[in-house]
Amino acid sequence: MSTAAPPRTSIFSGRYALATAGMVAIVAVAAFQNLAMTTVMPEISRDLDGETLYALAFAAPLAAGVPGMVLAGTWTDRSGGRVVAWVSAALFALGTAVVMTAPTMEVFLAGRLVEGFGAGAIDVVLYVLVARIFPDELHGPVFGAFAAAWVVPALVGPALAGIVTEVWGWHWVFAGALAIAVVGFAVLVPTLRHLHPPAAELRAPWQGARIGWSVGAALAILLLNVAPDLGAWAQVAAVLVGVVGTWAALRPLVPAGTFRAAPGLPSVVLLRGLVAASFFGSEAYVPFLLQAKHGLSASAAGLALTVAALSWAGSSWLHGRLGEQRLTAARTFTVGLGLVLVSLVAAFAVAAFGLPWWLLVVGWFVGGAGMGAIYPRTSMLTLRFSGEGDDGFASSALTIADAAGSVIGLALTGLLFVGTGGADTDVAFPLVFGGMIAVALLAWAAVRRLGAVPPPSAPQPSSVAGG
């Protein structure tokens, strides 16, 4: 007797709709905050007399997110994650409130640190929610939806932040972000009851040493980012201490074998970090190059970031639709890395040979598509290589690699840019993009070491309301 095939489910079907809406709302808040921050930071630095601390305003939350991710991963593996989500959201809201009302740049940076800690922790909770609620076959579409959550903020966020700043002041930009965050978390709250604690035999012990190492990693990464502003000898010392300290502190926070690209989860985590370093380390200089060397306005130069966000979202959606049979992991990473390299080579060519600026915009559109393929697949494989009881550790390792890679990439490009004379020279921009091409090429080693990928597990009956 034949058995009817089960109906095809969707991340927006009744049983998953509320969870999807809540998580996408949280990602959209983070996207708006990120894009708005880039738009209004020049005004903030002038208003608070904090030009010398400009770079730290971007690096601080990413670095603070590292201990936030580690603590959230350990805590989630023990408790299931419900309390972690509430504490993370409260810290993010507190940090945003401090940023919103900051009277000085030092207070502003303190708020950014608290905000970054909470944001890093909530990222881990979102990954664990995906692992606990959605079957393997829906992981790709979920991560595609996360990428799509950047589309509207990318289209309207910078312009809206600019208008609000001009009419009411930059403080109200963060007030709006805080209000949106509260609404987004309220939508997510009903889903949190499914973050049940693991069985006693699967409950991981508290890992105080890892939490301590994560604080050390954050400090070392921040040291790398302040190095370009130091004198020659102090810069050398800061780079040496920062590099050694970052390597030593990150080792206990990622799977064993990550730095030698061991097969499985270690190579996935390494790949994520290298790709983040190469793309985001470069992206900070894309609008700078278009303004400094091609005379574009700030809004016109931001077009490159907007088209990259759109192609990223479109590529992630397509990745989720194609499925793993037509788009294997090896094929995904090969195509994705190829597209990222095209974008970096285009940026290098425009910077080195004075080619038309629109080639860089087109190239960055291509690079966004590559990132949109790589990111959801690395997220899927991280959950695939882990299980309940250690998915918190695996998720925190991936998000740590993402954040640390981004900040390290920014530190490297900052050293290359400042060390060669900055925008007033003809070599600084080419060196920035050339250096990140080298980092992207290192990612090929991680792909070649990936090894066998386990197949998706059989879908299990959902415990989500309505299932």
Describe it for me?
- The protein has 467 residues and is mainly alpha-helical.
- 75% of the residues lie in helices and 0% in strands.
- The chain has 17 helices and no strands.
- Helix 14 (329-353) runs antiparallel to helix 15 (357-384).
- The two termini are 26 Å apart.
In terms of topology, how is this protein built?
Blueprint: H1 17-47, H2 54-79, H3 82-101, H4 105-133, H5 139-148, H6 151-167, H7 171-188, H8 208-226, H9 232-250, H10 265-283, H11 286-294, H12 298-301, H13 303-326, H14 329-353, H15 357-384, H16 391-419, H17 428-448
Helix pairs in contact: 1-4, 1-5, 1-6, 1-7, 2-3, 2-4, 2-8, 2-16, 3-4, 3-7, 4-16, 5-13, 5-15, 8-9, 8-16, 10-15, 10-16, 10-17, 13-15, 14-15, 14-17, 15-16, 16-17
Oligomer: single chain
Low-confidence stretches: 1-7, 458-467
Say how many strands there are.
Answer: 0
Number of helical stretches of at least 4 residues: 17
Descriptive keywords:
disordered C terminus
Task: Describe the structure concisely.
This protein has helices spanning 17-47, 54-79, 82-101, 105-133, 139-148, 151-167, 171-188, 208-226, 232-250, 265-283, 286-294, 298-301, 303-326, 329-353, 357-384, 391-419, 428-448. By secondary structure, it is mostly helical.
